[in-house]
Amino acid sequence: MREITLANLDDIARGAGILGTGGGGDPYIGKLLAHEAIRAHGPVRVVAIDEVPADATVVPISGMGAPTVLLERVPNGCEELAALRALERHIGRPATHIAPIEIGGVNSMLPIACAARSGLPIVDGDAMGRAFPEAQMVLPGLIGVTNSPMALADDKGNTIIIEAVDNHTAERIGRAVCVELGCQIACADTVLRGDQLAAGLVPATLTLAERLGAAVRTARAAHTGPVAAARRVLGGRALLTGKVVDVGRRTERGFARGRARMEGTGPDTDKTLELAFQNEHLMAVLDGVTVTTTPDLICVLDSGTGDPITTEGLRYGLRVSVVAAPCDPRWTTPDGLALTGPRYFGYEVDYVPFGSAG
């Protein structure tokens, strides 16, 4: 993929929604913002990691907040550019490239919109390979890159710079600011040099999102099974096909937290799958057995269309297919699991290696 245009934006948004593991915010809202930015400013140039100069200044862009709030408080489209400009003023040099902090939901679309508005190229890669709920949960942190300075901007024009002693503290301060500003803000942080991208990003994830979205679209048009098509691209496995029978959700400290229960249908009749989430799906328990845990991906798709269903979109009666897929292997190292494993989120279980259960 050499550029992002109105022609391939839908596929990227659909694929990123699936990779977002239920979180990252509603990709539809982000797609509208990216669509308008590309329509007004033209296509966004995409560059591979190995094409970025070693001394480049690469700025990841994202939104912070509870996905449930995003449904009611739609961004105006200028917040990300405001955060970028505030960060540039603080560090004393301009950004040369934009990157997604995560390839999930709205947070894959906001960097595209920002790249279009700023005229900068976007890097084909992201710092997670999925979506995670907290700002320090990025691969650059594993190689010593700090997420400070962190520039935050809201829809009213307020901007704030955070200089924190460590990445966890920056998350904590940023989350408090986010809650105070209405649980929906833009972020520019975790500045990378070009020579740090290979170790700090998951490569070619925008291209993966486009391939994933195109596979679902093509299979749906041919009536050949969009969920199966998505599973093949992901290298994943099916956990359950059934319907949602219970959802408990609350917005707490800037996160959407909760649980969902699905009962199987067809070949999965008499099976029950329970999911726990904090913005993203973190745990899958099938008939009382933990079968998938963070940092591996747990993706909930509409059984008929293959479209992603976010945690805030889960509703009683939806017919869904739940698919698990492997994460970037760097997340399964001891340091990676300390940041994103199930025990970090308070679950008293160890990481279940992909494919080892169920």
Main features:
alpha+beta; 11 helices; 7-stranded antiparallel beta sheet; 6-stranded mixed beta sheet; 358 residues; 31% helix
How is the secondary structure organized here?
Layout: E1 3-4, H1 9-19, H2 27-41, E2 44-47, E3 57-65, H3 67-70, H4 79-91, E4 97-100, H5 106-118, E5 122-123, E6 125-126, H6 139-142, E7 150-153, E8 159-162, H7 167-180, E9 184-188, E10 192-193, H8 197-200, E11 202-203, H9 205-222, H10 226-234, E12 237-252, E13 255-264, E14 272-278, E15 280-286, E16 289-293, E17 297-302, E18 319-325, H11 334-340
Parallel strand pairs: 2-5, 3-4
Antiparallel strand pairs: 1-2, 3-9, 3-10, 6-11, 7-8, 7-9, 12-13, 12-18, 13-14, 14-15, 15-16, 17-18
Helix pairs in contact: 1-2, 1-9, 2-5, 9-10
Average pLDDT, rounded to a whole number, is 93
Order of helices and strands: EHHEEHHEHEEHEEHEEHEHHEEEEEEEH
Tell me the strand percentage band: 25-35%
State the helical fraction. 25-40%
Q: Report low-confidence residues grouped into runs of 5 or more.
A: none
How many strands in all? 18
Shape: globular
Structural class: alpha+beta
Taking the sheet with the most strands, its summary is:
7 strands, antiparallel
If you compute it from the alpha carbons, what radius of gyration comes out, rounded to the nearest whole angstrom? 19 Å
Q: Number of DSSP helices?
A: 11
The end-to-end span amounts to: 36 Å
Strand order of the largest sheet: 16-15-14-13-12-18-17
Characterise the protein shown here.
By secondary structure, this protein is α+β, with helices and mostly antiparallel strands. It is 31% helix and 27% strand. It is built from 11 helices and 18 strands. The two termini are 36 Å apart. The model has no long low-confidence stretch (mean pLDDT 93).
